[in-house]
Design brief:
heterodimer; A: about 280 residues; mainly alpha; MetI-like fold; 11 helices; B: about 280 residues; about 0% strand
Chain lengths: ~280, ~280
C-alpha cells in the first residue's frame, strides 16, 4: 500500500509500470518535437535522414532556419514586448491588490475580493470576446460623440496586453498576498514609531520582504503571457504574437522550423521554470 | 495618521478598481447587453431575444453546446482517474529522496506552451507520424492509419493539456494525509479498495474538487486543442463563438454564445463548490 506497509511484488511492479507509462505519456510529444528539429528532412516526420542544425541556421531558398525567418522572429519579438508590459503591469497592480486585501479595511471588501478571483474561473475565450466588445463599444462612442479616433480601442498590441493582464494580475495578487500574510506587522509598527511615514515603511520594509514573491510571480506572469493563446486570439491585430503565428502555421501544414522554435521554447521555458523553482526552494 | 490611512486605501484601491471594472465587470455587462441586440430590417439595432432563440432552434448550435459540456465532464473524469494513482505514488509510495525530483518532472511539461504540446501530439499521431512509422516498421500495420482528427485523440489531447491542474491539488492534499490512518485501516484488515474509498478519496475531496473545477473550466473554454486535434465532426463550442465573431462577423450572436458558455461554466463551478461545501477562496488557494 504505502512505504511503511508490506506490499506484494506484483503490486509494486504494476504501480511502477503505471508511473513510467504516465511519464512517457507526459514527455513523448515534447521529446519527439525536439528530436525532429534536428532531422535533415523537409518534413517533421521520420525516417531519420541524419543530424542537421539547418532548421536553425540555414538561409537557403528551400530551407530557411529560424534565425533567418523574419516573420517568426518578428512574432517572437512581439511576444517578448507583450509579456514585458503584462508582467510590469500585473506586478504593480497585483502588489497593490495584495496590500489592499491584506492590510486595508473597507466596505464591500469581500465582494471585491470575490470579483478579483473571478478572472480565474472565466474561460479565456470569454475574457477575450468581452474585452473586444467593450473596447469596440468605447471606440465607437468616442468617435461618434467627440470625433476622436483612439488607437487603443482597436484590436492590437495594447489590447492584447490588457486582455492578458486582466487575468494574470489575479495570479500575482494571490501569490503576493500569500507572502504578505506571513509578514510580521510589528516591524511596520516599529518603523512607524520611529518616525517613518506609511510610504517609507512600505518602500523600505514591506516591499523588501515581498521582493522574492513579486519576482517569482513576475516570472510566472511572463511565461503565462508569452504562451497565452485563448484570450489573445480575439484581441490580436496585425502584430501576431508567437503562439498565434505558430497556430496559423501548424494549421496550414508544418515544417521543421516549427520544431526548431518549439525546441528553443522548451529549453527556454524549462530554464526559467527551473530557476524559479530553485530560488523559491532556497527561500523556504 | 487618519489622513495617511485614507490616502493609503485610495492608493491601493484605485488601480484594483480600474482593473476590475474596466477589464472584467463592464466588458461582461457589455457582453450581456450585446447578446440581446439585433439589427432589424432598417439596419437599426434593437433589443431582441432572437440571438438566444437561434441557439435553441438550430440543432447544430445546441448540439455542439451539449457535446462540449459532456465531453468536458468526460475529460475531467478521465483526468482524475489518471492523476490519482500518480499523485498517490509520488506522495506515499516512492522513496522520499525521489519525491522532489518526480514533482519537478511532473510540472516541467506544463510550463511549455500548449501549442507546442499539441503540435507534439500531431507529429506523433498523424498519418505520416512517428507512431505510424514505428508500427509499420514493427510489422503491426501494413498501411499508415490516420489517428488524428478523431474524438478519441481530441480527448487525449484535452486530458494531456489539463493534467497538471488535477495532479497538483491532489498531490498537495494527499501530502497532508496522515500515513497512520492507512496503516491503522490495514492492520484492521481493510483491503486496498476499502482504503481507497473510505480513507484516501474522502480525505482528498477538497483537492479533487478544486482540480475538477479548474480542469472542467479550462476544457470547456479550450479552443486550440479541439481545433487542431479534433476532426470536422468534433466541433467545440468555442469554435462556434470564434466563427460568429471572426468568420460571420455576427458579434451579437457570438455574444449570446459566449454568455451561454459563461453561464454553463459558472453553474458547474458553483455546483461543485456547493456540493462539497467549499468556497471559491479556499479552492483557489
Amino acid at each position: 500500500m504505502i512505504r511503511t506497509l508490506p506490499t506484494s511484488k506484483t503490486y509494486n511492479r504494476c504501480f511502477k509500470f503505471y508511473v513510467v507509462l504516465y511519464f512517457t505519456f507526459l514527455f513523448a510529444p515534447l521529446l519527439v518535437t525536439c528530436i525532429l528539429a534536428f532531422n535533415d528532412s523537409q518534413f517533421p516526420s521520420l525516417p531519420w535522414k541524419g543530424f542537421t542544425v539547418e532548421w536553425f541556421t540555414a538561409d537557403l531558398t528551400e530551407r530557411v532556419g529560424i534565425f533567418h525567418d523574419q516573420i517568426n522572429l518578428d512574432s517572437i519579438w512581439v511576444s517578448f514586448r507583450v509579456a514585458f508590459f503584462v508582467t510590469l503591469l500585473s506586478m504593480i497592480v497585483g502588489t497593490c491588490g495584495a496590500f489592499l486585501f491584506e492590510q486595508e479595511d473597507f466596505r464591500y471588501k469581500q465582494l471585491l475580493y470575490f470579483l478579483m478571483l473571478c478572472p480565474l474561473v472565466i474561460p479565456g475565450v470569454i475574457l477575450g470576446i468581452s474585452i473586444l466588445l467593450f473596447s469596440n463599444t468605447l471606440g465607437t462612442y468616442f468617435e461618434t460623440n467627440w470625433n476622436i479616433d483612439v488607437d487603443l480601442f482597436r484590436p492590437g498590441f495594447w489590447l492584447v496586453v490588457l486582455g492578458q493582464f486582466s487575468f494574470i494580475a489575479t495570479l500575482v495578487t494571490l501569490v503576493v498576498s500569500a507572502r504578505l500574510r506571513k509578514f510580521d506587522r510589528t516591524l511596520e509598527e516599529a518603523a512607524l514609531n520611529l518616525g517613518a511615514n506609511r510610504l517609507e515603511v512600505i518602500w523600505f520594509i514591506t516591499l523588501k520582504f515581498l521582493r522574492p514573491a513579486i519576482i517569482g510571480a513576475g516570472a510566472v506572469a511572463f511565461l503565462m503571457s508569452f504562451e497565452n493563446f485563448n484570450t489573445t486570439l480575439f484581441l490580436v491585430g496585425y502584430q501576431a504574437t508567437l503562439p498565434i503565428n505558430l497556430y496559423l502555421q501548424v494549421r496550414d501544414g508544418s515544417t521543421p522550423v516549427i520544431n526548431a522554435i518549439s525546441f528553443l521554447l522548451i529549453v527556454g521555458t524549462s530554464m526559467v521554470a527551473l530557476a524559479n523553482l530553485y530560488f523559491s526552494r532556497k527561500e523556504t | 495618521m487618519k489622513n495617511q490611512k485614507r490616502w493609503g486605501l485610495f492608493f491601493f484601491l484605485s488601480p484594483v478598481l480600474l482593473w476590475l471594472f474596466l477589464l472584467i465587470v463592464l466588458p461582461h455587462i457589455d457582453l450581456l447587453a450585446m447578446s440581446f441586440r439585433i439589427e432589424n430590417d432598417d439596419g437599426q439595432m434593437v433589443w431582441s431575444l432572437s440571438n438566444y432563440l437561434n441557439f435553441f432552434e438550430e440543432p447544430i448550435y445546441w448540439l455542439t453546446f451539449v457535446r462540449t459540456a459532456i465531453f468536458s465532464i468526460l475529460v475531467t473524469f478521465l483526468t482524475f482517474v489518471i492523476a490519482l494513482p500518480v499523485a498517490f505514488y509520488i506522495t506515499k509510495v516512492v522513496a522520499p529522496k525521489f519525491q522532489g525530483f518526480l514533482l519537478v518532472l511532473l510540472l516541467l511539461p506544463f510550463w511549455v506552451s500548449e501549442l507546442v504540446r499539441v503540435y507534439g501530439w500531431m507529429i506523433l499521431l498523424r498519418e505520416s507520424g512517428v507512431i505510424n512509422h514505428f508500427l509499420i516498421k514493427l510489422g503491426l500495420l501494413n498501411q499508415p492509419i490516420e489517428m488524428l482528427y478523431k474524438d478519441a485523440t481530441m480527448i487525449l489531447g484535452l486530458v494531456y493539456t489539463s493534467m497538471l491542474f488535477m495532479v497538483v491539488p491532489i498531490t498537495s492534499v494527499l501530502d497532508s494525509l496522515d500515513n497512520s490512518l492507512i496503516e491503522a485501516a490495514y492492520d484492521l484488515g481493510a483491503n486496498m479498495w476499502t482504503i481507497l474509498f473510505k480513507i484516501i478519496i474522502p480525505h482528498a475531496t477538497p483537492g479533487i474538487v478544486s482540480g475538477s473545477i479548474v480542469v472542467f473550466m479550462l476544457t470547456l473554454g479550450n479552443y486550440l486543442t479541439p481545433n487542431l486535434m479534433g476532426g470536422k465532426n468534433s466541433l467545440w463550442f468555442t469554435e462556434q463563438i470564434y466563427n460568429q465573431f471572426i468568420a460571420s462577423f455576427n458579434w451579437n450572436q457570438g455574444s449570446a454564445f459566449g454568455f451561454l458558455l459563461l453561464v454553463l461554466s459558472s453553474i458547474v463551478v458553483w455546483l461543485g463548490l456547493k456540493l462539497t461545501r467549499q468556497n471559491l477562496r479556499k479552492v483557489v488557494q
